[in-house]
Amino acid sequence: MTHGFYIAMSYGIAALISLCLITWVWLDGRARSKELAELEASGIRRRSAPKPEGEKA
User: Is the pTM value of this prediction over 0.70?
Assistant: First the structure.
């Protein structure tokens, strides 16, 4: 076995791990966005969201 094999394997493993992390973060972000949309649809608002007209602060 040559040094090139170990170098190629290390780059391949690093790329695979990076791809897994990117996919995980992307899927988690979609899940959190869906949860936020469900909460806002049920009437729960974020504290930073503007108040609807006629509602006191």
Answer: no
Q: What is the pLDDT of residues 20-35, one digit of tens each?
A: 999 999 999 999 999 9
Distances (CA, A) of 26 to 7, 30, 53: 28, 6, 35
For 51, residues 6+ apart whose C-beta sits below 8 A from its C-beta are 57
- Here the tokens at position 15 are 């790329």
Cα–Cα distance, 31 to 10 (Å, whole number): 32
What is the Cα 37 distance to its own chain's centre? Answer: 15
Using alpha carbons only, what angle is made at residue 23 by residues 21 and 18, rounded to the nearest 5 degrees?
35
- State the DSSP string of 2-44: -HHHHHHHHHHHHHHHHHHHHHHHHHHHHHHHHHHHHHHHTT-
